[in-house]
Amino acid sequence: MASRLNSPADIARMALKRLAELGLAPTPQNYTKFYNEIAGIAPAVKEEAEQSNVQLVANVQHVVQEAADTTGGLADLIRDHNDDIKSSIHSLQNTQDTPEMMRLLQAIVHTATNMHDTVEDSHDSLRELTASLNQMRDDLAASRHALERDPLTGTQNRQGLDMLLNREVQRCRTYQAKLSVALIDLDFFKQINDRFGHHVGDKVLIHVSNITKAVLRGNDVLVRYGGEEFLILLPETDLHGAKYLLERLRLVFRNNAVMHEGKRIDISFSAGLAQLAADENGHALILRADQALYAAKNAGRNTIIAAPEHVADR
Ligand SMILES: Nc1nc2c(ncn2[C@@H]2O[C@H](COP(=O)(O)OP(=O)(O)OP(=O)(O)O)[C@@H](O)[C@H]2O)c(=O)[nH]1
């Protein structure tokens, strides 16, 4: 049970403890690596996404500046052309000389044609700029998606959880809807790594997230919460429904062992469940699920425990 922690301070403490246990120096690199591992954050993806976001913002600034230049230039040119046409019309009204009238008319046609061409050019360049901005919007969405995904299992990571949870809690308040969370921690996962190697451990994590996703409904969200710990957000689900789902999941785990070199690797999990109370926030809800998970581990593992009802603060 690697990640039992919610606050950054707890995660930081745990990261330092890990470094000390392994006899590693608490360098910024080592500290960051362990902090991210415990918090379930993929550093490479995070850094890459952050860097590309900085690049993206610079690109957006550039395109917006170009658009401003284009429209500003267009306004100036139209004003100049307008002045020319006005002046030619004025001269036209004050002359009776036919050749002069012809010259002035030609000048007006010429200016109007220039104006038309200028507007056409600006239109094309603004269309190109809009296309660039649309492309950037898509890049930004893709980069945000990558930032919120766990690269190993493809599930949501903790990065996007706060926003999702707040949204669901808000929805429950507005519509008096139900929301439960399940915190699942694989039992004795370290032994799988130790016995078969880290790559088999990884394979087990992928397998676990795949079979879990197959059991969940479309609205449910599976989050890789820590190393071998998963959180499931269950909208429109009370504690009874959450228990039913987790029991089903336990059966699915039992019937779908990972096969490695012709041998079964049996996997079980412990889980803590909690249903959102009317006056509770998302953080407190997860904390109760976490305490229930602790109780499930202490009860001997392969156990599902529902948190007692939330007692309102006085
Ligand atoms: N293969 C693999 N192992 C991971 C990953 N993330 C965390 N782990 C391992 O998960 C193990 C968790 O070990 P423990 O915290 O002792 O928990 P456990 O062995 O599951 O024991 P209990 O939770 O108490 O039942 C550690 O060995 C971590 O290195 C990962 O992405 N891949």
Automatic annotation (TrEMBL):
Lineage: Bacteria, Pseudomonadati, Pseudomonadota, Betaproteobacteria, Chitinivorax
InterPro entries membership: Diguanylate_Cyclase (IPR050469), GGDEF_dom (IPR000160), Nucleotide_cyclase (IPR029787), Rev_trsase/Diguanyl_cyclase (IPR043128)
Organism: Chitinivorax tropicus
Gene3D superfamilies: 3.30.70.270
SMART domains: GGDEF
GO MF annotations in UniProt: diguanylate cyclase activity
Catalytic reaction(s) noted: 2 GTP = 3',3'-c-di-GMP + 2 diphosphate
GO CC terms in record: plasma membrane
GGDEF domain segment(s): 177-309
Enzyme class: transferase
Pfam families according to UniProt: GGDEF (PF00990)
Superkingdom in the source lineage: Bacteria
Alphabetical GO biological process terms: cell adhesion involved in single-species biofilm formation; negative regulation of bacterial-type flagellum-dependent cell motility
Enzyme Commission (EC) number: 2.7.7.65
UniProt-recorded name of the protein: diguanylate cyclase
